[in-house]
Amino acid sequence: MVRVLGHLSGIKKLTIDYDRAKILVTGAPYNYLEDLKLGFDFTDRSEMSVALCLIGSSPNLWRLEIKAYTRASPVEPVLEFLKDQGHLNFSFNKLEFVKMVCRGAVRSEVEFIKFVLANSPALKEMTILLNNSDEAQVALQKELLQFQGASAQAKIIFLKPYLVW
């Protein structure tokens, strides 16, 4: 798979699920990639790095679906990594639609959502499927609805995963 992806820069649609993201070759631009479905562990700094590199190497990406997986790993290294990315020049200029399944609404998932919102000026809709308690959902919804993203027209929709996925 490593050798193959390095030569598929013309790919338009890509789906990679949990534990497969680690073996990707990133860095080469995927100029034709428009639709990406990606599952990765939000408590694993290397998986987060690969995911951001793949997304950032896809300048024509307009639809992104993320399935968040979480292990019982410490989240602090991932949070620090995400904060460091805020200082870089990330911009997902053509990203219009994002769908994300949050497994536990761990802090790294919330910060990733904020990171995408802050760097997606063309975003029209972000659908977040929450898989946690009602109290945690209300807190997450309040926090994200108060967050000022890069797109003034973006709608944030919150759903229960069992209703859609």
Question: Could you please describe the fold and organization of this structure?
Answer:
By secondary structure, the protein is of the alpha/beta class. It has six helices and six strands; from the N terminus they run αββαβαβαβαβα. Strands 1-2-3-4-5-6 form a six-stranded parallel sheet. Helix 3 links the parallel strand 3 and strand 4 (97-102). It starts with a helix and ends with a helix. The model has no long low-confidence stretch (mean pLDDT 78).
Topology of this protein?
Layout: H1 2-6, E1 13-16, E2 35-41, H2 45-56, E3 63-69, H3 76-85, E4 97-102, H4 107-118, E5 125-130, H5 134-146, E6 155-159, H6 161-164
Parallel strand pairs: 1-2, 2-3, 3-4, 4-5, 5-6
Helix pairs in contact: 3-4
